[in-house]
Structures are given as C-alpha cells and as structure tokens.
Amino acid sequence: MGKIRIKTLGDEELEKEQEKKAKKRQEKKKLEKPVNEEAQKAVSTEGLGEPKGKLENVEVPQAAQKETPKEAKKDKKKKKKTPAKKRSMRYKSAKILIDKTKLYSLDEALDLLSRLQTPERSDGGQTKMATKGFDETVELHLNTAENGISGNFVLPHGSGKKTRVAVADDKIISDVEKGKIEFDVLLATPEFMPKLARVAKYLGPRGLMPNPKNGTLTKNPEDAAKKYEGGLVNFKTEAKSPIIHLSLGKISFGKEKLSENIKTALRAMPGGKIKKVILKSTMSPAIKLDFTKV
C-alpha cells in the first residue's frame, strides 16, 4: 500500500502563502528583463504568427533588421560611385577658349584646334605646350540618325598611320589560331572563305572578318591591298549606338591637308543621315562643327 499524506489546516495555509510568493518572484523577473531581450523574442517569432503578448515601445536592434535583395543592390550601386574624371591644367585652359553654344565653320575649327595646342593663360600669354611626346591624331565623331550606316572613302593625304594589310592564306589561319594577329585589314577571295570559318570567332569580334560591303572580300586582293595602304577608310556605326568615329590625320599635317581629309570624309556620308559632328584631337576638348557648310 502507498503512503497516505494527511493535510492539516496549518499546512494548507502555508502552501497558499508559498504559491503567492512564487508568483510575485516570477512577476518581478519579468519586469527586470531588458528591453532588447524582449525585442529579440519578437524578431525570432516573426513569420510564425503574432506573439502571445504584444510588445509596445520596443526598438528592434539594427543588427536584427534585414535588408531586401533590392535594397542591398541599391546600397552597392551607391557605394560604387565612379570618381569624377580629373582633367589637366592644359585641358582646362584649352576648354576656356571654346564656345559650347557655337557651331564652328571648318576653317574656324581647325584654327582653334591649332591654338588649343598652346592654350592662352589668364594673363594674356600662352602656356608651354604640354606635349605627351607624340603627334596627336585629329578625330571626327559623328552622331547619325540611325544605326547600320556604313561605307568607305580614300583619304587624299592618308591618316598618318600605316595600315597593315594581309591577304588570307593557310599561314594567316595558323597564326590567328595561336592568337597572333599582326594586321589591321584582312583581305580574302570568296573561294578561301570556308577555311576562314575556323577562325571567325577570333576575327569577327575585332571586325577583321572579310566582308564584301567594305571591299575586303574580293577577287583581286592585291589591288584592294594597294587601296588600303593608300588611305582607304571603312566607316560603320557602332553596334549599339548611332555613332561613327574616324581618325583623319595628325596635327602635324597642317590646316590645308586636314581640311581636305575632313571634307572628303563628310562628303562620303549619306545625305540627311548626320545629326551632329564633333572635331577634336587626342587630348583636346570637343569643338562642334557646322557640317552643313562643308
């Protein structure tokens, strides 16, 4: 038989007092709990339904706050701000001489381009020509009305750069496969094109694959080579933008030769397709050109 516990009147009163004291201790502990501990409980129950007791005036610690993927990407973009491009004192001095609102005639633009090589100082003198040890290239940048504009022309005075021309053969294919490309223009006959397909992945992205539109795919590659070496220039809008970039000579050519080269290039463009023309040298600011009067 089990033990029989006999309760007396005094024992019941004692138990009730002990229960009351235990409840008071529990309530006291709850009140003494720090606020951030309560907040952690609230965060841990997120997504599992509302907690039994609603917490008021509880601040969630920053570490507990979660960023969405979109917010994280935005923060990364903000952090990756590209620094402002630093310009030399020579460039800043040259820029002062150019009127941004004006369209310059070709003669005015070439005179100004020449002056920009030795920009004036604020005291009326001229800064020492800060050459970089090379003959700057004269560039023409054209904004067109649409993509897909292409063609070619021959510069009367060349571009000042020697064009390396090669005619496709088995040795050229072997060199290209090894990553050796030592030409600026590649010519080929129609019969040889199937063999060039092997290296199309190397030539295509560089714009070196022979093409009938620009005259690099021809039955007489030797004659075409003479034209390219004599100053033949191919032009084409960029793949994603209606822009054409041309190199039309060197500063050392002088005004007369540069003028003839630029006129030849502008007259080779399809009528009504040019919206804006910029003339500049390698290191100079841009000069807006009034191409309608060329």
Write out key terms for the chains shown:
single chain, 294 residues, alpha+beta, Rossmann fold, four-stranded antiparallel β-sheet, two-stranded antiparallel sheet, 10 helices, elongated
Total DSSP helices: 10
Question: What is the CATH topology of the domain at 99-119 and 134-160 and 231-294?
Answer: Ribulose 1,5 Bisphosphate Carboxylase/Oxygenase
Strand order of the largest sheet: 6-1-7-8
What structural class do the secondary elements suggest? alpha+beta
CATH homologous superfamily identity of the domain at 99-119 and 134-160 and 231-294: Ribosomal protein L1/L10, rRNA-binding domain
Tell me the strand percentage band: 5-15%
The profile of the biggest β sheet is: 4 strands, antiparallel
Task: Give me the strand/helix succession.
Answer: HHHHHEEEHEHHHEEHEE
Q: Strand tally, please?
A: 8
Distance between the termini: 124 Å
Overall average pLDDT: 79
In terms of per-residue confidence, which ranges show pLDDT below 50 for 5 or more consecutive residues? 45-56, 126-131
The CATH first-level class of the domain at 99-119 and 134-160 and 231-294 comes to Alpha Beta
Residues in helices, as a percent range: 25-40%
* Gross CATH architecture of the domain at 99-119 and 134-160 and 231-294: 2-Layer Sandwich
Question: Taking Cα atoms only, what radius of gyration do you get, to the nearest Å?
Answer: 39 Å
Describe this structure as you would to a colleague.
- By secondary structure, the chain is an alpha+beta fold.
- Among the domains are: 99-119 and 134-160 and 231-294, Ribulose 1,5 Bisphosphate Carboxylase/Oxygenase, CATH 3.30.190; 164-229, Rossmann fold (3-Layer(aba) Sandwich), CATH 3.40.50.
- Helices cover 34% and strands 14% of the residues.
- It has helices at residues 9-32, 35-44, 69-79, 89-96, 106-115, 170-177, 193-196, 200-203, 221-229, 255-267, and strands spanning 137-144, 150-154, 165-167, 185-187, 232-236, 243-250, 274-281, 287-288.
- The strands form 3 sheets. A 4-stranded antiparallel sheet has the order 6-1-7-8, covered by helices on one side. Strands 2-5 form a two-stranded antiparallel ribbon. Strands 3-4 form a two-stranded parallel sheet.
- A hairpin with a 5-residue loop joins strand 7 (274-281) and strand 8.
- It is elongated and about 125 Å long.
- Mean pLDDT is 79; it is low at 45-56 and 126-131.
